[in-house]
Amino acid sequence: MRIVSALTIREVRLRNSKHAFTQLFDLLEALFFIVGHWIIFTYLGRHLIIGDSLLLFIATGIFPILFFRAISVKAASALEASKAVTSIPFVEALDYSIARSFVEFLSFTVAFVAFFAMIGVLDLSRFAVPYNPFPIVQFLAMLTLFSFGIGLINSFLTYLFPLWKFCFGIFSRIQIFFSGVFFIPEYMPPQAREILAYNPIMHFVALFRTAFFSTYPTHLMSMNYMLGWTFAVLMLGLALERALRNHRAH
């Protein structure tokens, strides 16, 4: 715990070493991404599917995607950039990966709490304050571990195939179109529903939205499916990280 705490403080200082609050600029980019989609869909005359605000509906869909992408990318890149800290006794690359993921977790959580609070304060939606916070706790716990495991797997695959980093970047971006961000999967044709149900990110999006919309349909959402993916991905990621560590050691 002391090692991870020290690395977390080091990571925050490094990110803000040149300019104060550099992290905020990355988060503002994510918020502008959400607002940009809201403006586009408003201009196109997109009708509300649920709730009273298109901005809130889009935000509750895009946030899980950005959260997943940010933590998985940071966890993977930390293993590659850990040479500066692994020379210190008792510090492993995995410790640095945990620290960077934790910093990303805190940054995104604080930024989006402020974003949803702003929607509520500006009276843009009466659903901006979650009516049931428990699904958010479940969502944060599972998606953080899932994203961290994906990051460890990506680090191993990137070591074997350097082009994988580029491929995953494309894959993580197109996830936005297959995870129920701009639509509700239950309202899709049966064939499309069956295909989308295999995507674990779609389940995480649905879980997050259930905290805000009491009538959000959850026929496709499966807690066991999310738990299974989270456990499997995390165990595989840790195993591959250990294999990669042993390979580098020899």
Can you describe this structure?
- Keywords: Membrane, Transmembrane, Transmembrane helix, Transport.
- This is ABC transporter permease.
- The chain is an all-alpha fold and 250 residues long.
- The protein contains ten helices and no strands.
- It has helices at 2-15, 22-43, 54-80, 83-86, 93-121, 134-160, 164-174, 190-196, 200-210, 223-249.
- Helix 2 packs antiparallel against helix 3 (54-80), helix 3 (54-80) packs antiparallel against helix 5 (93-121) and helix 3 crosses helix 9 (200-210).
- The longest helix is centred in the middle third of the chain and has 29 residues, at 93-121.
- The mean pLDDT is 86.
What structural keywords apply?
single chain; 250 residues; mainly alpha; 10 helices; globular; transmembrane
SSE arrangement:
Blueprint: H1 2-15, H2 22-43, H3 54-80, H4 83-86, H5 93-121, H6 134-160, H7 164-174, H8 190-196, H9 200-210, H10 223-249
Helix pairs in contact: 1-5, 2-3, 2-5, 3-5, 3-6, 3-9, 6-9, 6-10
Structural class: mainly alpha
The CA-CA distance between the termini, in Å, is 27 Å
Helix content: over 70%
Name the helix and strand elements from N-terminus to C-terminus, one letter apiece: HHHHHHHHHH
InterPro entries: ABC_2_transport (IPR000412)
Protein name: ABC transporter permease
Transmembrane segments: 20-41, 53-71, 105-124, 136-157, 163-184, 222-240
Family: Belongs to the ABC-2 integral membrane protein family.
